[in-house]
Design a protein that fits this description.
Length: about 180
């Protein structure tokens, strides 16, 4: 078939151009994604003719083994070629980052050890604080409720404001003396 002809994938019954299609050894053509999914579900034959040789090299292999086979193949569709190139670049970057991480750890091992110890101590104290808060919360100790301050009108005279301040300070003093716990006002 010529490249400008439209081919049909019998797995999904879709028609696409040949750039996303691949042909098995038996001659049948499918979408790359469709045929890979077919073989990954442990089908070892061609979806059309059930020829055993067509899928034998794709089944019971790890993803990296299947990728290695794809890399050796010369007539991969452009989509697969792009993915393989991207996988190679990403693998190289991952190896570089892991190497840098190892070198950083070697150079600053004492710092990482100290940081680990500090993190451990911080987790311990945070856990201890939560335990103490729970314990105090479960203790049946009555704490006096504070009342919101009463707002005075601006029309009141100065004498009434002074007497209100004296009453507030007397109430605050009574609250402090009523409870054994100091309340900051």
């Amino acid at each position: 078939m010529a490249n400008d002809e439209i081919q049909q994938c019998t797995i999904c019954a879709g028609t696409e151009d040949s750039s996303e299609m691949t042909t098995l050894e038996c001659g049948h053509t499918f979408h790359v994604a469709c045929v890979l999914r077919w073989f990954r579900y442990h089908n070892s034959t061609c979806p059309n003719c059930r020829a055993y040789r067509s899928g034998a090299r794709w089944t019971r292999k790890t993803p990296m083994q299947r990728i290695a086979l794809m890399r050796r193949r010369r007539n991969n569709p452009p989509y697969v070629t792009r993915l393989l190139r991207s996988l190679t670049v990403t693998g190289t970057k991952l190896a570089y980052v892991r190497h840098e991480r190892t070198e950083l750890h070697r150079a600053h091992s004492q710092l990482f050890t100290s940081m680990s110890r500090l993190n451990m101590r911080a987790r311990y104290h945070a856990r201890r604080k939560r335990e103490l808060v729970r314990e105090l919360d479960s203790a049946n100790i009555t704490v006096p409720q504070l009342m919101p301050p009463i707002e005075s009108n601006e029309d009141d005279s100065a004498d009434e404001d002074d007497s209100a301040d004296e009453d507030d300070s007397a109430d605050e003093e009574a609250l402090r003396n009523a409870s054994p716990y100091a309340i900051a006002l």
